[in-house]
Amino acid sequence: MKLALCSSGNSLDSSLSSFNHGASWIIFYDTQSKIIEIIPISEPVSFDAIIQLFREKNIDLFISSDFEQDLKPLFDKMKVRMVVFKDIEKKNKEIIEMFQTK
Predict the structure, then answer these.
(1) pLDDT 10s digits, 26-35
(2) How far apart are CA 29 and CA 23, in angstroms?
(3) Which listed residue, of 15, 19, 67, 75, carries a Cα 20 to 30 Å from 88's Cα?
């Protein structure tokens, strides 16, 4: 499974962040290959650019502490599932561990 996490920082020790308020980075993680890629988000955030990036990366699951409602139909069309964790104190590595393949 390929994950995309909104992050407040550029490491796995950073906290999960809201896509529309404060995410500075997107962390891509492949649960099979264990490959991690961390990409900065430029301001202002272009939804079209994010959607294109998710397509290129074949993202299965988008994880954030919140998201723009406008994104849901776009993600639905791409068959990308969305998960919201309201506990923004969670570290990215904790969330990734929840989705590890055994």
Answers:
(1) 999 999 999 9
(2) 16
(3) 75
